[in-house]
């Protein structure tokens, strides 16, 4: 697979380490009333969609960027890739 | 000899080879199959299940029958197709899958038992009784299964991997492929042209068609010369593109030296990973046959293959020149073979054409509306039965060509689940619209198999492909060519009562398909698995479509309704050796060497793999006879004097920025933001699920600068996790991270004399306990100006330091310390002594931080700060985690010389030993020279309240039980006085 790194262009997926669902970026608030239940969901539960999936890839053999890659799990088509820090910044 | 005239063989280069021990001669340009045929050898092997005599059936990589073992010794290679084996001088080949000589295979008795080997035989026979599964059935099946045999010796050859990038990959170098490559090459595009054959030209080398009114080889040679002159074109012959992967990545194997007796200084094969913006699939087509009674005798082969042997290799398919050849066809293509054979001077008996209105293109007999209904000849064809309007007659022939139409080689086009679609005019499946992105089928692979149309289609495909990536290519002047007549009818097999083979390699007959239908295994996927059709090494290239047609007939459905299976990589078999690509033995993965590796080697150290690193395990001295003797000496040297150990492999992460303290507060379970500049703190990291993850030290070098360490094994993982936290969780924090593991060499200087030793190398630095206390850190210079970092930390429990210098000075620093410490008894120690020292001190390491333990179990529960959030803090307080009462304890053998092995489970004395009474387990164990006995660490139920109790460590695997006393994990200096001395 080739991943369109937003800074470096098309890079081979062998340079990356895959983590999984980008929902891992939404870490719950530890001070919330139901923090333990929220963390249980956060740590153990993932959606497993057939189709568009936002997921985290680490450019470990490259510039050490974490990327949010949008991939169609049924075709492996890459629909986009953004720097995770930008995505998180936009959410903030 | 049945060698014909002409052909693309070099008669000035004769080659000697042997087959089953008998010597033969061939020529440069021959394949093993063509050379055997030219020597009148028809019988080349035995079938898999029934051990039927078999001859060569095809002329390319689709071959189902002519499987041979090549070479001898370690290079012996089974299941090689004779049709793609280039002949070389001295080649040694043997037939396979027979017991006794090929002509009298004792296993041929299976053929008489064939009624018992029906479709689904394995599923039906080896079911009952269950107790026979492992003891009887499996060994029996294993013995019978498989075709060739292995040498059981290591592969002596080298393999390699390579990477290529191009604008256009052209798969196949026939008419369409050459036209595509030339079009793209002239347009200046980066082109890779790959073909599995050793010669370019594809079918053009096997046909008699003229190009520009001259032999096709003239045009091929001129195109080849031009392509070779273009710097943007790379021609790769002997290269099979075996798979299409995501985003334009193609896998290919180049057989660099398979055609040589020994590779010499070359690699045997290279695995290429080709990243192509676009690709043209010009893989050609494979001819199919029409099953009829006893159609598997040596001498029966594909008519197109017969034509190829005659035209390219000047080899006749018969044993003797006087033997006649017949052709059985359902279309015009079979007549082409008859014409070409006649032109070569072979004796053609006639063409049996299933069509009532059969044409006649030349001077030969035509049996119109007739079929072949039987054959004779035990080890090779002697006669065939021709039936017309219910009347049959036997004719003597030495070979029969079967022409059932051509199937486009759609394989690569369906590697991404793209389904081929049925073309009613072509009577074949062609690549569908949902093939891999960027792959354009062309020529015969796209159903355009006429020479003229293939040339045009290849050119057009290249122009289209390049226009999609913004390269303008122009039409080229194509050679004048014509499309040969290719009318045919849908005739798939000759009905009859006798066995008619569909899949030769796996011995699947029309009857088997009928039985599968009767047993309701009608979907193609079920048919495949029930009958093993298409599941042999040839993957059914010559049989799949014929089988589908038979099934369609039985179910009364059309072929497209019946469906087709799709293909996945590899197109042809790929050896495991080349997939390894040379990554074997010490090259299996990179080995990281510490800065003092060379020095340690010179000291005669033994090494051990720790993660990716090679670390010195211990340093034996003359006179020491066991590793224990060495390790005991090293341990005692540290406890009484000073020892030196390279600890570079521990991960180091440099953390800088205004929010560095806050960031580390969130990474570690304990407080790091409050750490004073110039001090070090032990840190424990949790996983987000609350379990203990990794430990290390955080040294605060400046207000906004920390240097943190990780365990050796987790260095990469922890750094990855920290970058995740930084970029994905808290990008708003002002912090920057970089791994500096390789940048700094770090040496532990441990023991009561460590301060004295260090004082001899530091540049005016106050090492006194007051100025530089336990857990202090500082930047400094040593040895007259070398920058260094000093940490007063201890893994051994002794007064100890770790000193770091830029990695390139690591070797020199170790030498300097050894010189300066000679009178202090400075002793290098390895990982074994390091482990003994830390077990004696009760420090946790990988065995205790194994991913299943918690901070509380480690006795570090209080480290998980409740004043702040950190990774894993919330989950570590979960009820089930918090309720775990197992605690890390020390354990001492009651009989000091008896070792309890790590991994043993702990039980109360006298208790039944099972899961319900399990009290915990041993994590680490060693001989303590300090205590003169075996000690261990382990997790024990309520261990912190059971000091002094005698328990049992059970190791049922080795039938061992050892009595242990529960003690504090700190066997040495529990008060920590030595650390602070």
Structural overview:
The complex is a heterodimer of chains A (92) and B (981). The model of chain A has no long low-confidence stretch (mean pLDDT 95). Chain A has one domain: Folate-binding fold (2-Layer Sandwich), CATH 3.30.2270. In chain A, 20% of the residues lie in helices and 36% in strands. By secondary structure, chain A is α+β, with helices and mostly antiparallel strands. With 981 residues, chain B is of the alpha+beta class. In chain B, the strands form 13 sheets. In chain B, strands 8, 9, 12, 13, 14, 15 and 28 form a 7-stranded mixed beta sheet that branches. In chain B, strands 41-42-43-40-34-44 form a 6-stranded mixed beta sheet. Chain B has a 6-stranded antiparallel beta sheet with strand order 46-49-50-45-48-47, with helices on one face. In chain B, helix 16 packs across helix 21 (831-841). Chain B is elongated, with a radius of gyration of 38 Å.
- CATH topology category name of the largest domain in chain B: FAD/NAD(P)-binding domain
According to CATH, the fold-level topology of chain A is: Folate-binding fold
Summarize the largest interface: chains and residue counts: A-B, 35 and 25 residues
Ranges of chain B where pLDDT stays below 50 over 5 or more residues in a row are: none
* Succession of helices and strands of chain A: EEEHEEEH
Overall CATH class of chain A: Alpha Beta
Average pLDDT for all residues of chain B: 94
Number of strands of chain A: 6
The gyration radius over C-alpha positions of chain A equals 14 Å
Topology:
The complex is a heterodimer of chains A (92) and B (981).
Chain A: E1 2-5, E2 9-12, E3 17-21, H1 35-44, E4 52-58, E5 66-72, E6 78-83, H2 84-91
Antiparallel strand pairs in A: 1-2, 3-4, 4-5, 5-6
Chain B: E1 10-19, E2 22-28, H1 32-38, E3 43-46, E4 53-55, E5 67-70, E6 77-81, E7 91-95, H2 109-112, H3 121-125, H4 132-144, E8 159-171, H5 175-186, E9 191-194, E10 210-211, E11 214-215, H6 216-229, E12 233-236, E13 239-245, E14 249-254, E15 269-281, E16 285-287, E17 300-302, H7 303-313, E18 325-329, H8 332-343, E19 348-353, E20 366-368, E21 370-376, E22 383-388, E23 391-396, E24 399-403, E25 406-408, E26 421-423, E27 428-430, E28 439-441, H9 451-468, E29 501-503, E30 508-509, H10 510-518, H11 524-531, H12 544-555, H13 559-562, H14 576-580, E31 592-593, H15 597-602, E32 606-610, E33 613-618, H16 627-640, E34 643-646, E35 651-656, H17 660-667, E36 680-686, E37 692-702, E38 705-710, H18 715-729, E39 736-739, E40 744-750, H19 754-759, E41 777-782, E42 786-791, E43 800-806, H20 810-820, E44 827-828, H21 831-841, H22 873-876, H23 879-882, E45 886-893, E46 905-908, E47 920-928, E48 933-941, E49 950-955, E50 960-967
Parallel strand pairs in B: 1-7, 8-9, 8-15, 9-12, 15-28, 17-24, 18-19, 18-24, 19-20, 31-33, 34-44
Antiparallel strand pairs in B: 1-2, 3-4, 5-6, 5-7, 10-11, 13-14, 14-15, 16-25, 21-22, 22-23, 26-27, 29-30, 32-33, 34-40, 35-38, 35-39, 36-37, 37-38, 40-43, 41-42, 42-43, 45-48, 45-50, 46-49, 47-48, 49-50
Helix pairs in contact in B: 5-6, 5-9, 7-8, 10-11, 10-12, 16-21
């Amino acid at each position: 697979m080739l991943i369109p790194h937003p800074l470096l262009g098309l890079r081979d997926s062998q340079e990356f380490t895959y983590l999984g669902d980008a929902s891992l970026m939404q870490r719950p608030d530890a001070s919330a009333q139901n923090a333990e239940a929220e963390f249980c969901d956060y740590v153990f539960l993932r959606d497993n969609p057939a189709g568009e999936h936002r997921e985290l890839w680490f450019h470990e053999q490259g510039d050490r960027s974490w990327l949010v890659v949008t991939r169609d799990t049924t075709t492996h088509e890459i629909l986009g890739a953004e720097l995770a820090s930008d995505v998180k910044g936009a959410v903030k | 000899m049945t060698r014909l005239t002409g052909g693309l063989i070099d008669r000035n280069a004769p080659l000697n080879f042997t087959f089953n021990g008998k010597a033969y001669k061939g020529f440069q340009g021959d394949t093993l199959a063509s050379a055997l045929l030219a020597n009148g050898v028809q019988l080349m092997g035995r079938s898999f299940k029934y051990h039927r005599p078999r001859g060569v059936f095809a002329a390319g990589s689709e071959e189902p029958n002519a499987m041979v073992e090549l070479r001898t010794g370690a290079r012996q290679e089974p299941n090689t197709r004779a049709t793609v084996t280039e002949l070389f001088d001295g080649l040694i080949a043997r037939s396979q899958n027979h017991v006794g000589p090929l002509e009298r295979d004792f296993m041929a008795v299976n053929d008489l038992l064939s009624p018992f080997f029906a479709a689904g035989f394995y599923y039906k026979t080896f079911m009952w009784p269950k107790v026979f599964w492992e003891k009887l059935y499996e060994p029996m099946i294993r013995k019978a299964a498989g075709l060739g045999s292995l040498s059981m010796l290591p592969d002596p050859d080298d393999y390699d991997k390579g990477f290529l990038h191009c604008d256009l990959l052209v798969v196949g170098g026939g008419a369409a492929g050459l036209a595509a490559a030339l079009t793209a090459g002239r347009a200046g595009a980066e082109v890779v042209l790959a073909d599995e054959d050793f010669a370019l030209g594809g079918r053009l080398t096997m046909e008699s068609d003229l190009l520009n009114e001259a032999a096709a080889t003239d045009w091929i040679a001129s195109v080849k010369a031009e392509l070779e002159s273009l710097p943007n074109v790379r021609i790769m012959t002997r290269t099979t593109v075996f798979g299409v992967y995501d985003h334009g990545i193609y896998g290919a194997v180049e057989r660099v030296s398979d055609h040589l007796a020994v590779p010499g200084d070359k690699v045997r094969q290279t695995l290429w990973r080709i990243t192509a913006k676009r690709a043209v699939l010009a893989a050609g087509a494979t001819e199919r046959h029409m099953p009829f009674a006893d159609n598997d005798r040596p001498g029966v082969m594909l008519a197109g293959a017969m034509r190829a042997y005659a035209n390219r290799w000047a080899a006749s398919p018969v044993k003797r020149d006087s033997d006649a050849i017949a052709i059985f066809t359902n279309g015009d293509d079979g007549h082409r073979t008859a014409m070409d054979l006649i032109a070569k001077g072979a004796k053609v008996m006639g063409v049996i054409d299933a069509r009532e209105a059969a044409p006649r293109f030349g001077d030969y007999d035509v049996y119109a509306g007739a079929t072949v209904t039987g054959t004779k000849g035990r080890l090779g064809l002697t006669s065939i039965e021709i039936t017309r309007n219910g009347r049959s007659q036997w004719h003597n022939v030495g070979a029969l060509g079967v022409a059932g139409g051509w199937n486009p080689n759609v394989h690569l086009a369906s590697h991404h689940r793209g389904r081929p679609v049925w073309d009613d005019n072509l009577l074949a499946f062609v690549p569908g619209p949902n093939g891999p992105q960027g792959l354009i089928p062309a020529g015969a692979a796209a159903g355009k198999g006429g020479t003229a149309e293939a040339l045009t289609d290849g050119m057009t495909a290249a122009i289209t492909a390049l226009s999609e990536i913004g390269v303008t290519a122009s039409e080229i002047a194509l050679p004048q060519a014509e499309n040969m007549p290719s009318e045919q009818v849908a005739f798939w097999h000759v009905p009859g009562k006798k066995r008619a083979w569909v899949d030769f390699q796996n011995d699947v007959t029309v009857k088997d398909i009928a039985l599968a239908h009767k047993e309701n295994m009608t979907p193609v996927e079920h048919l495949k698995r029930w009958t093993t059709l298409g599941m042999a090494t040839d993957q059914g290239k010559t049989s799949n479509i014929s089988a589908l047609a038979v099934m369609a007939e039985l179910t009364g459905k059309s072929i497209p309704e019946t469906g087709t299976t799709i293909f996945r990589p590899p197109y042809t078999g790929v050896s495991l050796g080349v997939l390894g690509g040379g990554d074997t033995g010490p090259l299996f993965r990179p080995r990281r060497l510490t800065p003092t590796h060379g020095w340690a080697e010179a000291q005669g150290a033994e090494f051990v793999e720790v993660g990716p690193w090679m670390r010195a395990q211990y340093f034996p001295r003359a006179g020491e006879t066991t590793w224990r003797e060495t390790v005991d000496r090293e341990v005692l040297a540290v406890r009484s004097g000073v020892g030196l150990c390279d600890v570079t492999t521990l991960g180091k992460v440099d953390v800088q920025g205004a929010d560095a303290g806050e960031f580390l507060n969130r990474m570690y379970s304990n407080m790091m933001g409050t750490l004073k500049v110039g001090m070090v703190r032990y840190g424990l990291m949790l996983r987000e699920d609350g379990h203990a993850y990794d430990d290390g030290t955080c040294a605060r070098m400046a207000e906004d600068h920390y240097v943190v360490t990780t365990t050796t094994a987790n260095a990469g993982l922890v750094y990855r996790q920290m970058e995740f936290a930084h970029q994905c969780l808290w990008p708003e924090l002002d912090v920057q991270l970089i791994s500096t593991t390789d940048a700094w060499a770090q040496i532990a200087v441990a023991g009561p004399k460590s301060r004295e030793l260090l004082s001899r190398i530091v540049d005016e630095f106050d090492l006194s306990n007051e100025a530089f206390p336990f857990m202090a850190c500082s930047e400094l210079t040593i040895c007259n100006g070398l920058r260094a970092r000093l940490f007063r930390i201890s893994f051994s429990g002794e007064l100890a330091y770790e000193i770091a210098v830029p990695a390139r000075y690591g070797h020199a620093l170790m030498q300097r310390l050894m010189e300066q410490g000679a009178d202090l008894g400075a002793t290098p120690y390895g990982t074994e002594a390091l482990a003994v020292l830390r077990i004696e001190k009760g420090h946790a390491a990988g065995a205790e931080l194994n991913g299943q333990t918690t901070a509380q179990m480690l006795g570090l529960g209080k480290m998980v700060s409740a004043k702040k959030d950190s990774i894993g803090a919330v989950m570590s307080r979960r009820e089930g985690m918090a309720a775990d009462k197992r605690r890390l304890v020390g354990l001492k053998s009651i009989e000091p010389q008896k070792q309890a092995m790590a991994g043993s489970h702990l039980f109360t004395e006298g208790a039944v030993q099972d899961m319900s009474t399990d009290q915990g387990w041993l994590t680490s164990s060693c001989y303590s020279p300090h205590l003169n006995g075996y000690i261990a660490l382990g997790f024990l139920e309520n261990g912190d309240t059971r000091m002094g109790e005698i328990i049992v460590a059970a190791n049922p695997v080795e039938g061992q039980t050892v009595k242990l006393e529960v003690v504090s994990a700190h066997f040495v200096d529990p008060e920590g006085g030595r650390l602070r001395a």
